[in-house]
Specification:
The chain is of the alpha/beta class. It folds into two domains: 131 residues, Aspartate Aminotransferase, domain 1 (Alpha-Beta Complex), CATH 3.90.1150.10; 245 residues, Aspartate Aminotransferase, domain 2. 43% of the residues lie in helices and 16% in strands. It contains 15 helices and 14 strands. The chain has a seven-stranded mixed beta sheet, sandwiched between helices. A four-stranded mixed beta sheet has the order 1-2-3-12. It has a three-stranded antiparallel beta sheet with strand order 11-14-13. Strand 2 and strand 3 form a beta hairpin. Helix 4 packs parallel to helix 12 and helix 13 runs parallel beside helix 15.
């Protein structure tokens, strides 16, 4: 039965009473890390523009030049008339960047995740995921119609145990694998978007290899940021395509543009072209977006100082925050990623602290359930190469004052 307007209004009021109702704000870039939020100039500490490339003149110029030549839209899906020369060039360059045979562009990261899992998983298969995976990965597992299991966050032993149990359950009586052996996909974020920690990829790669499972890594928040060359979590851990056969990346974060891609061997990419519904049945990215991404990729390769500056900002933020008594997460991943959560627990408390920061000129979003588990509402501080040390100092001072009075 469809909900009535009155029922929806009551449900919205219930969300409001629990401090869980979401709101939108208009934001306009205003130079560097500044934005105009509903007309007020504030420093943005909740963007995923980690390398400060979204407003770079080279990206803007590339987009403008491409639009003048190819127009504003692609006009069709990749498999009809929407696949252009900029798409083709970007896919080649992304394959080279990630050390893979081929890459395939998707219109969004959400669509890439849905497309990959649904194309690789069959009804009889297992999709095994970290409990704190991004919503798009969880939805991908659900929509694949395979068996979906979730293991405790970051627990490679639990993942391996689940794979072992899966294989045992579906073995023949003499202990050998049956002829109709079911497949398994082990799926994880590289950097977890709300927590800022790293998946234990070396251990997950071993588990997947030992149990003959596909390891799929969505490195949306690692590519461009981690590793000496911006190769993300895989470069950080020294892993290759044999360890992680399916690599997914988004282009709207460190790349500063929009869209997503999957990189892997030629057979994988060809299979996705044949079977990934979110690739086949949607309009291709506009070519100007691909052109801007190519410019971003060139800068990512030649301007390593952006990653170095970002790492300095992470170190500086954490050192200053500790001095002011702020409670920070302290895994090895938290010490190197630009996502720095301040967990407050209560949703209304997170909203109140966020509002106090905004009054002082700092924009830090309050993240509440269901985006994060119940009782773990937080401020999600994200750092960028576009910030400077003085802005970070100002934010930490304002954070400390706001938390003390919360």
């Amino acid at each position: 039965m469809r909900r009535s307007a009155e029922a929806l209004a009551a449900a919205l009021a219930d969300l409001e009473s629990k401090s869980l109702r979401r709101q939108r704000f208009t934001a306009t870039p205003d130079g560097g890390a500044y934005v105009l939020r509903d007309g007020r100039r504030v420093v943005n500490f909740c963007s995923n523009d980690y390398l400060g490339l979204a407003q770079h003149p080279a990206l803007i110029a590339a987009m403008q030049a491409s639009a003048a030549h190819s127009g504003a839209g692609s006009g069709a899906s990749h498999l009809v008339t929407g696949h252009g020369s900029e798409h083709e060039a970007l896919e080649r360059e992304l394959a080279e960047f990630t050390g893979r045979e081929r890459a395939l562009l998707f219109s969004t990261g959400y669509m890439a995740n849905l497309g990959v899992v649904s194309a690789l998983a069959e009804r009889s298969d297992l999709v095994l995921e970290d409990r704190l995976n991004h919503a798009s990965l969880i939805d991908a597992g659900l929509l694949s119609r395979a068996e979906l299991q979730r293991y405790a966050h970051g627990d490679a032993d639990a993942a391996q145990a689940a794979l072992v149990q899966f294989r045992r359950t579906h073995s023949s009586r003499d202990g050998s694998q049956s002829d109709d052996r079911r497949g398994a996909l082990l799926v994880t974020d590289g950097v977890f978007s709300m927590d800022g920690d790293l998946a234990p990829l070396p251990a997950l790669a071993r588990a997947a290899r030992e149990q003959d499972a596909w390891l799929i890594v969505d490195d949306a928040h690692g590519l461009g940021v981690l590793g000496a060359n911006g190769g993300g979590c895989l470069e950080h851990f020294g892993l290759g395509s044999d360890d992680v056969p399916v690599l997914i990346g988004t282009l709207g974060k460190a790349f500063g543009s929009f869209g997503a891609f999957v990189a892997g061997d030629a057979a994988l990419i060809d299979w996705l072209i044949q079977r990934a519904r979110t690739y086949i049945y949607t309009t291709a990215l506009p070519q100007p977006v691909a052109a801007a991404t190519r410019a971003a990729l060139a800068l990512m390769r030649t301007e390593a100082w952006r990653r170095a500056k970002l790492r300095e900002h992470v170190d500086h933020f954490r050192e200053r925050a500790r001095r002011r008594g702020l409670a920070l997460a302290d895994s090895a991943g938290h010490q190197i990623t630009p996502i720095q959560p301040i967990v407050l627990g209560d949703a209304q408390c997170a909203l109140d602290v966020s509002a106090k920061l905004l009054d002082a000129g700092w924009w830090v979003a309050a993240i509440r359930p269901p985006t994060v588990p119940q009782g773990s509402a937080r401020l999600r501080v994200t750092l960028s190469a576009a910030h400077d040390a003085e802005q970070i100092d100002g934010l930490v001072d304002a954070l400390a004052q706001a938390c003390e009075s919360a």
